[in-house]
């Protein structure tokens, strides 16, 4: 995995960049600001999750995962404020060359095509910089907005996984998607 930090302009004022050690307070603020917006789509979070201290402890782990080639933790930043996340996780090399994609956007910016641009940029990075062949993603069955992002960026549906992830306190079915990065 390259050591060069990711820094991809998406618009004139939003950049997709690598998560840094100093992002703890901004991550906590972003999650707190978007708590209600994200709650139906994410695992149940403990109160500590919304603190800078929590993220200050977790970010070094995520950076270590990046340096070891197992993930690529990214944030969307606008004017010094974190307004979203894109994560390439569980990177597997060898015959698979695959990663899992996860993402969210600040509720104030939803519906503007910004996450579509971020997902597309992350997939290009996975192909060009990380040398991966395939990206997979999963959405809740009723998350039409997320499914549209994936479909607009070249993902195809590959099936449904019953009780795939524990989201909002219960095991929920997910639609599975993949994007092949090399023809």
UniProtKB/TrEMBL annotation:
<comment type="similarity">
    <text>Belongs to the acetyltransferase family. RimJ subfamily.</text>
</comment>
<dbReference type="InterPro" id="IPR016181">
    <property type="entry name" value="Acyl_CoA_acyltransferase"/>
</dbReference>
<keyword id="KW-0012">Acyltransferase</keyword>
<protein>
    <submittedName>
        <fullName>GNAT family N-acetyltransferase</fullName>
        <ecNumber>2.3.1.-</ecNumber>
    </submittedName>
</protein>
<feature type="domain" description="N-acetyltransferase">
    <location>
        <begin position="14"/>
        <end position="182"/>
    </location>
</feature>
<dbReference type="Pfam" id="PF13302">
    <property type="entry name" value="Acetyltransf_3"/>
</dbReference>
<dbReference type="InterPro" id="IPR051531">
    <property type="entry name" value="N-acetyltransferase"/>
</dbReference>
<keyword id="KW-0808">Transferase</keyword>
<dbReference type="GO" id="GO:0016746">
    <property type="term" value="F:acyltransferase activity"/>
</dbReference>
<dbReference type="InterPro" id="IPR000182">
    <property type="entry name" value="GNAT_dom"/>
</dbReference>
